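Researcher: Sequence recovery benchmark, item below. Answer with residues only.
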């Protein structure tokens, strides 16, 4: 067995811990912050900007709306440099964190996002200090070295990554998610669950990623419904925030067929990432079942639906049933119907998948065109 694991240098978790940001910036003696942020009308933004102002720490606020593309990131890098920033703070969901992660890397390494995304330009310099503060609970982007970026030239949604791009510090404060609408809470929660499940059955899973994955699943199972229906329940929000973080740690083991489909199709049809993952997850489990039956049986245990003494196959099916039940309970999307109106050109779609995630080989069932077609057809029902 051989594996590599990369994690943040520091993780700060808990209600009210947002206030640690100022102490950290002071300790690192930072002069000006590039604050990549979600909407400035949100409470979280008001808290962070207020804190920085009170502490006399200069910052430049760069709002990012929607999933990031090349232009947003390259422009952000220019602003980082022209504003004389010396560190980056991301305050937002996966979109904001990925934009911040990439522009922070570019600020030290030069060049354009596309060169790293498509043409293998090497990251050679350590990026400035990067602190990630998530405001959604789904992507776990604060725990990964990866950024997902929409390429404006070929419209593909493709990842770029480097070990040095992971946030140095992650601050997880569940108070930031209490204003997250139910629709986003539910779909992003299913994204976290899909990271945990896909990484657990991945052919590249390690004892470390399995440990993170199982804990993440158990937390989603316990807290997602409450987080959706009692938005101010801090225990549930904290549980989901941790689940998302642990899912991000687990996904080092690689994505599976749900993400292999969700990422390119999300880019192609403008389907929010969490929605796309929610739709594909149960079908991915069904199609993979014969190739990872024992592992899905373990998942049933983590989800509290294993029957002692029953066969692995029965327990694996219990796990799938529980995922569908949870999806239904929280009203997360379960079909592509509402997102894809016209009959798609299958050849073109397969080509898009092949050019983005089609090279990934750690799904337990070998990735073939037939498998892509089959899961797509199921998800359109
Ligand atoms: N880097 C990674 O490892 C990784 C992993 C999975 C997904 N992703 C990427 O992350 C992106 C999706 O991120 P996401 O699912 O977190 O969604 P998001 O960041 O796009 O946010 C979704 C919406 O929620 C709003 N929002 C965020 N926090 C809020 C809050 N607390 N209250 C109210 N509204 C809030 C945002 O403004 C936005 O409109 C996609 O591009 C996806 O591909 C990255
Ligand atoms: Fe995801």
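Model:
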């Amino acid at each position: 067995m051989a594996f590599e694991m990369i994690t943040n240098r520091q993780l700060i978790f808990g209600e009210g811990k947002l206030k640690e940001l100022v102490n950290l910036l002071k300790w690192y003696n930072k002069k000006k912050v590039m604050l990549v942020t979600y909407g400035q009308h949100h409470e979280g933004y008001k808290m962070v900007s207020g804190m920085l102002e009170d502490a006399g720490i200069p910052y430049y606020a760069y709002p990012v709306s929607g999933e990031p593309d090349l232009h947003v990131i390259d422009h952000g890098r220019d602003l980082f440099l022209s504003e004389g920033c010396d560190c980056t703070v991301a305050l937002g969901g996966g979109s904001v964190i990925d934009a911040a992660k990439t522009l922070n890397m570019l600020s030290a390494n030069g060049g354009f996002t596309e060169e790293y995304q498509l043409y293998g330009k090497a990251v050679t310099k350590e990026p400035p200090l990067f602190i990630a503060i998530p405001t959604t609970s789904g992507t776990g982007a604060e725990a990964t070295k990866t950024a997902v970026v929409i390429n404006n030239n070929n419209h593909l949604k493709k990842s770029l990554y480097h070990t040095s791009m992971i946030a140095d510090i992650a601050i997880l404060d569940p108070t930031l998610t209490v204003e997250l609408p139910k629709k986003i809470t539910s779909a992003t929660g299913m994204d976290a669950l899909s990271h945990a499940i896909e990484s657990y059955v991945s052919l590249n899973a390690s004892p470390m990623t399995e440990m993170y994955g199982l804990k993440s699943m158990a937390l989603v199972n316990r807290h997602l419904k409450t987080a959706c229906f009692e938005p101010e329940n801090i225990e549930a929000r904290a549980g989901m925030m941790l689940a998302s973080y642990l899912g991000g740690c687990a996904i080092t083991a690689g994505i599976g067929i749900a993400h292999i489909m969700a990422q390119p199709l999300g880019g192609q049809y403008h389907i929010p990432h969490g929605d796309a993952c929610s739709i594909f997850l149960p079908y991915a489990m069904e199609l993979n079942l014969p190739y990872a039956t024992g592992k899905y049986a373990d998942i049933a245990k983590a989800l509290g639906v294993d029957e002692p003494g029953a066969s692995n196959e029965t327990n694996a099916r219990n796990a799938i049933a529980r995922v569908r039940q949870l999806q239904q309970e929280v009203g997360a999307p379960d079909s592509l119907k509402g997102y894809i109106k016209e009959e798609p050109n299958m050849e073109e779609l397969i080509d898009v998948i092949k050019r983005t995630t089609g090279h990934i080989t750690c799904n337990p069932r070998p990735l073939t065109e037939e498998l892509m077609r089959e899961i797509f057809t199921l998800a359109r029902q």
